[in-house]
Specification:
The complex is a heterodimer of chains A (about 110) and B (about 525). Chain A is mainly beta and about 110 residues long. Chain A is about 10% helix and about 40% strand. Chain B is built from 21 helices and 17 strands. Classes of the chains: A mainly beta (about 110), B alpha/beta (about 525).
Chain lengths: ~110, ~525
């Protein structure tokens, strides 16, 4: 058995925490995955984010422009494809956070609507 | 040439072929702490039991000056041998020959030994240590992989398939281990990923080391791709030999019986493991060790989804698969990872005629948005599917809590468990007392002068009435209520009487499990 077993280590350190399941508190060790989980944050549809890391190759809009759902906003080049990002809802462009040619990371905000 | 010369010529050819990539390449392999392919095979199989085939196979590459190169055995060693007397087919990729890359002849050797194992009806062990597809052979390398994956699938559930990752196993190549039954990894040696760090850096701009991306620990702890984790190649080989002793040669047989041995009662006393307070944890593996032969328990996926414990042990000499909630981790709840882990193991046991013993002590499923969005519905259903589908003898021991959906999922009577017993400490209820009392007696609590007192009282009432095994026993959902120390006898007797069990599923090509 691997000596670096986390369970054995936690036992030695006495890393017992409390887990609430259906109103009852249980004394137990929490797994790393459980402790590392990201807290839930609802999606803001007014912020258009990059779904994948890549490069912005073309921007079709400017601040203050009115857009309708389905309008082209910008091109994000990733995975050997020109990914066309469309507006999901009607709105007015508040700001454009990127420039043409800029490399973006996943979930980075590209465009904000009012 | 006379016989003597011909024999000398054979010996010379063998010496050349056995050199592999040559002493320089072998030194490089050793320098990073890896054994050679031949050393690995000879360490795993019984002494003098290895017979090699296709030593003189030559590669088929013609483009890019390949026809000028001699690649001994085309970078893979295949053959048959025995492990503790059990016959096995075994192959090991040789990293010293063209980086162990897979060309068409290399793949053909592997395919041949896989087909061989299927005909001989014996296990196949594959040692992966390869740079991946041999680019010079182009689409033939892909064809090679495809043929291997097809055979992995056809052999799945027919003969045991074991993958040992003792080097890089990247890109397409890594799908073969994923299709096999058990994957063994070694710290700092194993590397498994679909796309490597260089590609990730170029295409996505993200920085990560090989070890952090797909090292042994990542797969043992996070992804669940690995089933056995070792800190050295020797430890890995010992684990393989251990595993082989528990499983049958093929799906027509049962695992070989061993001499019956009692558990190590002085070290593991079942009455001393369970704490008096039902909210306190204990290590369920101590329970397993207090009831199985010689207290020998081979745990699988120890570091992944540790809130459920799976593994092989022997009861009165016969291999059984254990599935047990682990109150020590996350209170023993079921969640996405633990459902996946248990369900696949249940199906393995069912495919290979291994009875399943389920030990139950869980408060339910892990609540939370993260679990819901990760698909706990779909993954949790896998356990229900696996248990219902299994026709091997199923024995369930309800030790402490068994609330709600968790009670059903842990091989309850309703999923056609053959023998269900409960301990006096069992609490079989639709909900824990605190949760249930709040709902059922909501109006009484609201209307009371002192709601907190009323709530406490109602919780106590509910506890006394329902938090026990007798309500379920009254309906026949529990076959017997026994003292903890009778558990081994219960299980051994159940196995004795169920050795000829037959259960027939409705006719179908196959079901549609919640993959």
């Amino acid at each position: 058995m691997a000596e670096t077993n986390n369970v054995q280590q936690d036992l030695k350190k006495g890393q017992f925490k409390s887990l609430l399941v259906e109103n009852i508190k249980y004394r137990t060790i929490l797994t790393k995955k459980y402790q590392d989980k990201k807290p839930y944050a609802p999606k803001d549809i007014k912020k258009i984010t990059a779904f994948i890391p890549g490069t912005i190759t073309k921007i079709f809009v400017a601040p203050k422009k009115k857009v309708k759902a389905g309008d082209k906003l910008l091109n994000l080049e990733a995975m050997k494809m020109e990914n066309i990002i469309l507006a999901a809802v009607d709105g007015t462009i508040k700001l454009i956070a990127v420039k043409e040619g800029e490399k973006v990371t996943k979930e980075m905000v590209l465009i904000e609507l009012f | 040439m006379g016989l003597k010369q011909k024999t000398a010529d054979l010996k010379k050819r063998m010496r050349e072929a056995v050199k592999g990539g040559g002493s320089k390449a072998i030194e490089k392999q050793k320098a990073i702490g890896k054994k050679t392919a031949r050393e690995r095979i000879l360490s795993i199989v019984d002494p003098k039991s290895f017979h090699e085939y296709d030593l003189f196979v030559e590669h088929a590459g013609r483009d890019f000056d390949m026809d000028k190169k001699y690649l001994p055995g085309d970078g893979v060693i295949t053959g048959t041998g025995t492990i503790s007397g059990y016959p096995v087919c075994i192959y090991a990729q040789d990293f010293t020959v063209a980086g162990g890359s897979l060309g068409w002849a290399h793949a053909k050797k592997i395919i041949k030994i896989m087909d061989h194992a299927m005909k001989l009806k014996i296990p196949i062990i594959g040692i992966n240590d390869s740079g991946g597809a041999r680019i010079q052979e182009g689409v033939n390398a892909l064809a090679g992989y495809g043929e291997i994956f097809y055979r992995n699938t056809q052999a799945s559930g027919v003969i045991p398939q074991i993958s040992v990752i003792l080097g890089p196993c990247a890109g397409g190549a890594v799908y073969s281990p994923a299709l096999t039954d058990f994957v063994f990894v070694v710290e700092n040696v194993s590397k498994m990923f679909i796309t490597g760090p260089e590609v990730i850096k170029t295409v996505l701009g993200e920085d990560i080391s090989m070890e952090e991306l797909g090292g042994a620990r990542v797969h043992a702890e996070i992804t669940g791709n690995a089933h056995f984790f070792a800190e050295s190649e020797e430890e890995c080989f010992d684990q393989i030999k251990d595993l082989i002793s528990f499983i049958p040669w093929n799906n027509d047989k049962k695992a070989d019986p061993f001499p019956k041995k009692p558990p190590k009662a002085r070290q593991y006393n079942i009455d001393e493991v369970i704490p008096a307070d039902p909210r306190q944890p204990y290590d369920v593996r101590d329970i397993i060790r207090s009831i199985c032969d010689d207290s020998e328990f081979l745990e699988i996926q120890e570091l992944f989804a540790a809130n459920i414990v799976i593994g092989f042990a022997r009861m009165a000499g016969q291999t059984v698969g254990f599935v047990a909630n682990q109150p020590l981790m996350l209170a023993g709840v079921l969640d996405v990872d633990s459902s996946d882990k248990a369900a696949r193991f249940i199906r393995y046991c069912d495919a290979f005629n291994i009875p399943i013993v389920t030990l139950v002590d869980l408060p339910g499923y892990l609540p939370g948005i993260e679990q819901e969005h990760a698909g706990v519905i779909r993954h949790g259903a896998k356990m229900l599917y696996a248990y219902s589908e299994a026709t091997v003898p199923k024995i369930t021991v309800i030790m402490r809590k068994a609330y709600g959906g968790g009670y059903i999922a842990m091989c309850s009577n309703h999923l056609r468990a053959d023998f269900v017993c409960a301990w006096p400490t069992a609490e079989i209820a639709v909900m824990g007392p605190e949760g249930a009392a709040n709902i059922i007696f909501r109006n009484e609590i609201k209307a009371a002068e002192n709601p907190d007192e009323m709530r406490k009282q109602k919780i106590k009432e509910y506890k006394n009435k329902f938090a026990n095994p007798y309500v379920a026993a009254a309906y026949g959902y529990v076959d017997a209520v026994i003292e903890a120390k009778e558990t081994r006898n219960f299980i051994v007797h159940a196995l004795d009487v169920s050795s000829l069990k037959v259960e027939v599923a409705p006719k179908k090509k196959h079901g549609i499990p919640p993959f």
